[in-house]
C-alpha cells in the first residue's frame, strides 16, 4: 500500500520528461534534415543519445500510424 497517499495527492509516480514536445520536434527536424547527428543533438539538448533515439522512434511511429 506504499504510495497510496501520494496518488491521492495527485502524484502519478512518473518521471518528468527530459524534453518538451517542442524540443522533441526540433530534434527530429534537425536530424532528418541532416543538420545534426543524434550524438550532437543529444549534447546540444543535454540528454543522452538513448533519449534522442527514443524520441525519434516514438515520433516516427506516430507518423506511421497516422498515415
From TrEMBL:
One of its GO terms (molecular function) is DNA strand exchange activity. Residues 15-57 form the Resolvase HTH domain. InterPro entries: Homeodomain-like_sf (IPR009057), Resolvase_HTH_dom (IPR006120). It comes from the Bacteria. This is Resolvase HTH domain-containing protein. It comes from Brevibacterium ravenspurgense.
Amino acid at each position: 500500500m506504499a504510495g497510496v497517499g501520494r496518488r491521492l495527492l495527485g502524484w502519478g509516480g512518473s518521471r518528468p520528461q527530459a524534453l518538451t514536445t517542442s524540443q522533441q520536434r526540433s530534434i527530429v527536424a534537425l536530424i532528418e534534415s541532416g543538420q545534426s547527428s543524434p550524438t550532437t543533438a543529444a549534447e546540444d539538448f543535454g540528454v543522452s543519445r538513448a533519449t534522442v533515439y527514443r524520441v525519434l522512434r516514438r515520433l516516427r511511429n506516430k507518423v506511421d500510424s497516422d498515415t
